[in-house]
Amino acid sequence: MAHASLMTVDDVADYLNKPRSWVYGNWKAEKIPFRKVGQSLRCRPADLDRWLDQQEAV
User: Where is the Helix-turn-helix domain positioned along the sequence (predicted)?
Assistant: First the structure.
């Protein structure tokens, strides 16, 4: 089974059309679905889409 690539902070910033600094500064408060992989933050594309859908519903 093929898995989608995990998104980096830069990928998420591009996807959300936000600066990288905004993503780093707000990921905990905004509950962006990152997971720590070693010292890096990574996000599954499907999790980010679900999170984004929930933001629009609020």
Answer: 6-55
Q: The dihedral of CA 57, 11, 16, 39: what is its sign?
A: positive
This prediction's pTM: 0.86
Q: What is the 3-state secondary structure (H, E, C) of 4-28?
A: CCCECHHHHHHHHCCCHHHHHHHCC
Look at residues 54, 17, 57, 9 and name the one whose alpha carbon lies nearest to residue 36.
9
Q: Distance between CA 21 and CA 4 in Å, rounded?
A: 25
Q: Which residue in 38, 32, 39 sits closest to 11, CA to CA?
A: 32
